[in-house]
Amino acid sequence: MRRALLVFSVLLVPAMAARADSTPTTRNAGIDLQSLDRDDAAAEAALEAGDLAAALKYFDYFGHEQEDFCRATLEYRLARRKLEEAVRTSLGNRAWGRTARALGVPRHRRGRGDEGRVARRDDNVVYVKNPGAGNEVPYVYDDGRWKVSARNVLVTALRARFGSAVEFEEADLFVLAGKTAKVLRARAGRIAALAEDVRLKRVATADQLDEAVWQIRSPAAAG
Length: 223
Known about the structure:
Elements: H1 33-48, H2 52-56, E1 59-60, H3 63-90, H4 93-103, E2 118-122, E3 125-129, E4 137-142, E5 145-149, H5 150-162, H6 170-199, H7 206-217, H8 219-222
Parallel strand pairs: 1-5
Antiparallel strand pairs: 2-3, 3-4, 4-5
Helix pairs in contact: 3-4, 3-6, 4-7, 6-7
């Protein structure tokens, strides 16, 4: 099952890719993954319906910068879904597979139940790594539901970029959240525009699609 909240594992600035922690793990010990899956499914359903307010309830954030960061990830995910639908319809599944890889869409190997899935707890944060995924997702349990922790996504991204010993203040996380939201939202707009171009046959071949995706991924576009 594709997990809606894993959009957080696709932070679009390449240096911010949040890789899995190397800390030894105890597989799923004392962690209720069934309830986590239930809440992920609810978040996915809200996103499918285009109800961003409902989907935001499955994110844990503080301050308007982090809220905007969470909202921008949902906007990006919706734009990417429009592109997927357009590409599959016009150019086929193989073309979407290549595009998905270029955009860094998470791929997860299907298993039985929790096979291959590893969860670890660090204080009140649970980090879950799904089979086939390159990244962990940090969750906290609050108000009777599992939520992806915006703060811990940002912390993990900083440590992935600058090392585990990086020093930062909470204010730095708010700045990072605001800047990343802008990147996400800008890229979502370009992806949505590409989806429309594919739908209207302005981008009509796999080569044209590859070139358009490359333009979206270029460092100049990220700026």
